[in-house]
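Ticket #4471: structure export looks truncated?
Reporter: QA, pipeline team
Priority: medium

Steps to reproduce: submit the single chain below to the structure queue and open the exported record.
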Amino acid sequence: MGLGLGDVPRGIWEAVGELRVTLSALSLARYSALLLILLVTVGLRLLPVRYGVYISEFDPWLQFYAADFIADSVLEGGPLAVLDFFDWHSSITWYPEGVDMGTVYFPGVPMAGAFFYLGLLALGLDVGLETAVIYFPIVTGVLSVVFAYLLGRRLGGEVVGMLGAFFFSVSPAFMARSGLGWFDTETMGMLAMLAALYFFVEAMSPRRGVRGRYVFASLSGVFIGIMAASWGAFLYLLGTLALFSIAAWVLGLFPKGFRRPHAMMMVLALVLAASVPRNGVAFLYNPVALLVYAAVVLPFFSRVRLRLSWGGVLYLVSSVIGLALLVPQLTAFVPVNIGARYLAVVNPFTKFDNPLVQSVQEHVGAGLVAFFVNTGMGFLLPFVAYGMYLMVREVDVKKLLMLILGASSLYFASSFARLGTLGSPFLALVGAFGIYGILDPMYGHLVAEGRGRKKARKRVRESRSYVLAGLALVVVLGSVLVFPMARDAGDSPVTLASASTNLRGSIPDWIEALEWVRMNTPGDAVVAAWWDYGYWLSFIGERRSLADNGTMNQTRIELLAAMFLSDEETALGILEDLDADYVAVYVVPFPLTDPNTGEIFGYCFLQCIGTAGEEGKFVQMARIAGIDETRFINATGQLLPEFWATFLGGLIPYEWSYSEGGLDVYQEAVKYPREFDEGSALTLVFSSSRRSVAEVLIYRVERYTP
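Actual output as written to the record:
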């Protein structure tokens, strides 16, 4: 029987009807909410555009420099030329030794950025590599939120996934590391971590067949490997998964049929991690790797069954502490090298033994309550606590994983401020679980009251309405409390655009200075500066630097600290040994204005604006160099005469004028000539326009011997 024209509209209507049934109201609401969350994710991260579109901070410039090398190599030599990165020696940083880039730095982020750019190029979108890597973190940030949603949905259901994704997307801690221009380790690290965890949970699922478990376990291992090639925090992920596997075995919760896929995943992750030159084969002797070995082997033995009560929690905690105390003893027999930063994460008290670790702002400990407040998730604190309580009370394998992730990330994020990014997705999900734990009893109670199938269905519909209303209320509450802080965190210029200050505005001083260095100094010039500015001088100014943000040569950094805080003769001798041609310093003088006329009558330093420039950073210089900083500054923040007698004091073109009400007032006083003078060892060849408070000064070294 043929198909008539009149049957076509009816067929279309039937197809639409089927689609209408498939796309239910709840599904439409779910996808709309997820889309809205992703749009908010993008919008918040685009706010800095109005201040200037640049690569942000310092470390991302290194990643861009490496991505540029990789992209050029691939364009010239084909895809296999990507391996040239591992043989690349750069002499522009840490002069004169230089750096073996492929063995010192992680390859994951620059490779991802380079191939993202090459992919756009293949599509005919030649936006330029720098533009591509500026927007690349927003792309990976969106994907990270998607995986957070999928992970939350698998661990705790739709409500947990949706709420967790929302709280995660607007967390200032995550926003700061996934926004415009943040082309650094977290760009790929966070995405790979969340993807690895999602596939790990899928591999554990009993609804997966044998083949499915191996496929998802393999994907999890691959993404752990990607994280190991991108971010040192992969040690946290591997260690946490190992602890989870051991705890699940102890509690008798280890999933049936998962032992072999789990072992394959862990071994694959270890092999991929050890194949990254920065990690190397020595990683296989790392304490985290030793923990992984235990996690692989133990599930093949008869399971130990321990009921997780508060006594069980105490047992687990004491066991972890015992392992932590035992590991240092075991490492005496194997060649293990744990970096100072990694050790300080595990044991925050070791930070006080290393002034270089202390000198980095992102290494500052936050503390439990301060962490929640500073990350904009303060209102989640009671829900996180309640969520953890619910997990302990009725533990299963999924809740155990979420509990370990939440508790461990909270500890490490409280230890190092930068790791607030690491903890943000897990604490968001645990907090969402706590909120769901409050809403769920209402849902279950209403369902239980239903009598008969028809009445039960009606109760379910009503309960869904109540739950959705409660969920909407929580989202609105979260928006009121969190969104303004998220907006403020997003609406900030990238570091270069604001001249490395905390001020919200375009401050071009460093942009001017680096352009001047690139255009007005010899191509082989060596610029001495505090290590904070090394990447900028090398990769934007395109000149050789003596130390940079990699802080890999502590002896060199100590020497620079001693140089700045010595007298002129000693400092010039150090500059001669380092073959330096220029010296760059950065100061932040705060202008004091007459309230009546608006005229500037003087300047203030630490007492007004904090420690943005060398006028405050010298305290850390003194500690690194082993010099008592109280020689230079008193408890009220007043700079003492001995500070102004140092080489750094001479480079800062200000001098004390008078004090009023405990406030020191300074006046401009350039101490080195702006034109060549045979009697002067230095010439001030550049000073930024100082349209605001920041000021970059560059001196040319004329002679070393005074």
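Status: closed, not a bug. The export was complete when the record was re-opened. Leaving a note from the reviewer for reference: The mean pLDDT is 82.
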